[in-house]
Amino acid sequence: MPSQPAGAPPGVDQGGSGAEGGAEGVSGPELARAVVDAALAKRRAAAQSPRRRGNGGETGRRLRGYSGPGPDPRDPQLFGAVLDRLMKARGWEKPKAEATVFGAWERVVGPDIAKHSRPVKLDGGVLTVEAESTAWATQLRLLAATLLRNIASEVGHNVVTKLNIHGPAAPSWTRGPRRVQGRGPRDTYG
C-alpha cells in the first residue's frame, strides 16, 4: 500500500490508485466532498464501536465529564452531609451514638427524668444510670423499657441494650484509723 502525503486526509488517496474518488489528481470541490465523506464514515464507525472509559481514546476529548446539568461531586456540599459521609467512611457511627447518650441526655430521656438522673457509664451496651434518690431509682427501673425505647429512637438500635439503674452513691465511712465494724448507715440520703 502506498504511503499517504503528510497533509492528506485519511481515506483519500492522492497517489493515483483512486480508492475513494476513482480519479487521479482530485482537487477543488471533489476533494472537499471526499474529506467530508471520510470524516462522516469515521464518525459512523466510532458510534458503532463500544465506547471506552477514560478520555475518549483517539479523539482526545472526554466522553462524559462533569460538565452539564445534574449533581457533581465538585459542587459545594452541606457541612452536615460531608460530616455524615466521613463518619460512615471511618466507622464512627457507634462512638457518635454513644456520645449522644451522654451529651444530649435531656433530649434523649426528657427534661423531667434528666433532672433527677444522669448517665454514668456505657460499657458493652449496658448503660449505668445514677438516680438522685432511691425513690427515683425505683421509678426509673419501672420505666426501663420506655427509656430503652426512647434511647433507641434517638441514637439507634443496639447502642444501649440494657439499663443498670442505681441510687445515689453513699459516702464511705471505711476510711480512717478508727472505725467500728457493723452494718453502717441505713439511709441513702434521698
Describe the structure in your own words.
By secondary structure, the chain is mainly alpha-helical. It has a domain at 93-166: GMP Synthetase, Chain A, domain 3 (2-Layer Sandwich), CATH 3.30.300.180. It is built from 7 helices and 3 strands. The chain has helices spanning 29-48, 79-90, 93-103, 105-109, 111-116, 134-142, 144-155; strands at 117-123, 126-131, 162-166. Strands 1-2-3 form a 3-stranded mixed sheet.
> Which fold name is given in CATH as the topology of the domain at 93-166?
GMP Synthetase, Chain A, domain 3
> How would you sum up the major sheet?
3 strands, mixed
H/E series, N to C?
HHHHHEEHHE
**Per CATH, which architecture of the domain at 93-166?**
2-Layer Sandwich
The level-1 CATH class of the domain at 93-166: Alpha Beta
The chain-level mean pLDDT equals: 78
SSE layout:
Layout: H1 29-48, H2 79-90, H3 93-103, H4 105-109, H5 111-116, E1 117-123, E2 126-131, H6 134-142, H7 144-155, E3 162-166
Parallel strand pairs: 2-3
Antiparallel strand pairs: 1-2
